[in-house]
Amino acid sequence: MTKSLDSFKARKQLEVDGRTYTYFSLTEAEKNGLDGVSRLPFSLKVLLENLLRFEDGRSVTADDIKAVAEWLKERRSSREIAYRPARVLMQDFTGVPAVVDLAAMRDATTHLGGDPNVINPLVPVDLVIDHSVMVDYFGTPESFEKNVEMEYERNGERYQFLRWGQEAFENFRVVPPGTGICHQVNLEYLAQTVWTREEDGETYAFPDTLVGTDSHTTMVNGLSVLGWGVGGIEAEAAMLGQPISMLIPEVIGFGLTGRLPEGTTATDLVLTVTQMLRKKGVVGKFVEFFGEGLSNLSLEDQATIGNMAPEYGATCGFFPIDKDTLKYLKATGRDPHRVALVEAYAKAQGMFRFDDTPDPHFTDTLTLDLSTVVPSLAGPKRPQDRVPLTEAASTFEAALHDLRGGKKSSQEPPESRAEARYMDEGAEGVMDVPAYPVEGMEYHLRDGDVVIAAITSCTNTSNPSVLIAAGLLARKAREKGLDVKPWVKTSLAPGSQVVTDYLEKSGLQEDLNALGFDLVGYGCTTCIGNSGPLPEAISATIAENDLVACSVLSGNRNFEGRVNPDVRANYLASPPLVVAYALAGSLRLNITEEPLGEDKQGNAVYLKDIWPSSQEVAEIVRQVISEEMFRTRYGDVFRGDKRWQGIKVEGGMTYAWPPASTYVQNPPFFDGMDKTPKPVEDVEKARILGLFLDSITTDHISPAGAIKRDSPAGDYLVSHQVRPIEFNSYGSRRGNHEVMMRGTFANIRIKNQMLDGIEGGMTRHYPSGEELPIYTAAMRYEEEGVPLVIFAGKEYGTGSSRDWAAKGTRLLGVRAVIAESFERIHRSNLIGMGVLPLVFKDDTSWQSLGIKGDEEVSIAGLTDIRPRSEVTAKITFADGRTEEVPLMVRIDTEDELDYYRHGGILHYVLRNLVSDKEAA
């Protein structure tokens, strides 16, 4: 940092409360050759400062810096830059495999004759354990303690490994289980908006920036911290000092006017924003919010919008620093001097938004009048599919045929379980749909019934307004005598312990408990697939009668097969609507018009009767939230409880891999690795492992939820004496490549078009024509020496920044993925694992080519490819005819090309670290 060439004479001093900071001034740089940069979007100002600070003439040149200023001419650029974030954030699902890779790299370094200590984070890394708690117990005061106990029983090996990493690596901190969701811990504690670093006797001040191994790292954009999700492999490279190679992005300005109307929430707003931006098309672009409407949103509202950037497809959803940023930093107990530094630095840099600040120049813009936002849900399969609350029931009916997989109706029940037509409590008339008795219970189930209602996930649990609203709705419902339907599994998983503090202080936790929304844990839970099992009788009724059951959750992801294997329709909603649907018990009930139930006097109770006003919510927020709550809860955040402290740490510089572990194993990525890479070989006579349609998500490719007994991963675990009840989840076993490669493409809802109407991870092996699990077929192809390719449609790899979606693809022997388009993070991850992403040209698709899955595919010239160059795939059809298809190489930068040629980004970094050490 101190070695910046400073071609634009930007280096200056800033004094704040008697302390002196060195910084790189955008104002000075503008005077010294970077004309007009004061009108850049705020997010690009952060990138510009980064380049000024790291200018070294090699990875960052003066021409790179000029390119940011020249961006203003066309408001887009094809220039590749090297960006270095200040820190890295991880959660445990993605963090464990990242630490596994670092441990494996230490072993590989030793094998190559190097010093394993060179494998050490060079920037601060925080790992928050938040994705492992599952909702096994719910609806009782003991739920939290029981779930935590189960969490430690299931994850002892993983947690022991993380404790080792905490001791073995420098610059690496672990936030123990039971603290909160990584994004909320980041927002409330870790993030500083302006970062500082001591070096050579000077203190440098610069924008707080980060990358995270969770796609919802973007939540912190609401605090004006530029951050986004990357795969674990890319995060590991950043930790080890490698810059992130990226094109100077287009920046889409999202203008906000007006204010939210009474009866709406920040959740309704973010679902509206998500729908608008998905329609606009912002994949790979920055989104930055501007306009007078910003002054009518709380910082928590902004964080809610920032959180769902992956759902609207953007790299980030950025909000500039303003007076509310300072207010939030102070309210969450940050050091008063840090707050003063943020204000002084932002104003000195032209990074502070005043009410009269001119709008920056954007690549393109769109606008939303906040007053037009209406109560909404999103579902039943995608977060961008917003549904006005008034139309939720009718749209569910319209989607029912598709949700059932094209079948016309539920299966007819056997005579012993005769079909019933029943009066649903609170409904106005008989529901004219099949209803099926639940064994041992006094109620029936039917299509559309809500069996999971979960206040969960990082999107909403950091926002006091929606959590207080949920508590108030519960209080009013309780006063009226309403109760949750008996078939609904309810849960409350706050994003931090501070939420519990203010819910308890307000008395609202008692009201939530009365409706079954007891605390179940501090973590992602239902949104990541850790919803836990449904009661056996309910699960059996759903399965036996092919029912389309529903979940309503306050999360950000509702992809097929994610929330719970028994639940096909999943709807995102605000926390108060989660409570409302738990009372209603069905998506088929129009809760805007039909009563939720009856009060103690037998009068109909409608949603409007128990919906809290904005004033009621605001008054309680003001009364119950204090700085002291944050200071107390985060005062010793890395210590953990007695369970965490009692974990025994074994191993030294390298990890002693336990040979019998089914959670943590030394991965084979570096087996046989030499100091220099071998030339890339062409793909010759590859077979097709899968044909997929549009919007295949990383959940489809690398599931995070339950492991089925009758699956390759289930068979592996049983063969290692693991009982099905102890399977845990795919996410928790990401440190074991044997489980994960068997789980790749094993989602229960994925549809391989090589097979007619079959769901699940199956394919057809050629030339035998046998129908096999994808893992089994891939291993047979490996024995036969046959390479593999995958064909897909648009938006391949949508969703979480899940590196195992790429790692598993590589371990199955896939050399290339050919799609119509890729989602940003997954494309990068494929390259990071040495898998070639290719896209069709000229509106071609595998369907238009008539590909069925029995073809052979050859791709030549891979040794000489360049970023975004063209290659030709030769398709040999089963009847012997051939067709040559032009494809674009979706390697976008020279750095990505280096990673691909080395067989992956970690191989590239490892070779460089070893060679640099030898040169020294």
From TrEMBL:
InterPro entries: AcnA_IRP_Swivel, Acnase/IPM_dHydase_lsu_aba_1/3, Acoase/IPM_deHydtase_lsu_aba, Aconitase/3IPM_dehydase_swvl, Aconitase/IRP2, Aconitase_4Fe-4S_BS, Aconitase_4Fe-4S_dom, AconitaseA/IPMdHydase_ssu_swvl. Keywords: 4Fe-4S, Iron, Iron-sulfur, Lyase, Metal-binding, RNA-binding, Tricarboxylic acid cycle. SUPFAM superfamilies: Aconitase iron-sulfur domain, LeuD/IlvD-like. Its EC number is 4.2.1.3. Gene3D superfamilies: 6.10.190.10, Aconitase, domain 3, Aconitase, domain 4. Residues 77-585 form the Aconitase/3-isopropylmalate dehydratase large subunit alpha/beta/alpha domain. Belongs to the aconitase/IPM isomerase family. Involved in the catabolism of short chain fatty acids (SCFA) via the tricarboxylic acid (TCA)(acetyl degradation route) and probably the 2-methylcitrate cycle I (propionate degradation route). Catalyzes the reversible isomerization of citrate to isocitrate via cis-aconitate. Could catalyze the hydration of 2-methyl-cis-aconitate to yield (2R,3S)-2-methylisocitrate. The apo form of AcnA functions as a RNA-binding regulatory protein. This is Aconitate hydratase. It comes from Afifella marina DSM 2698.
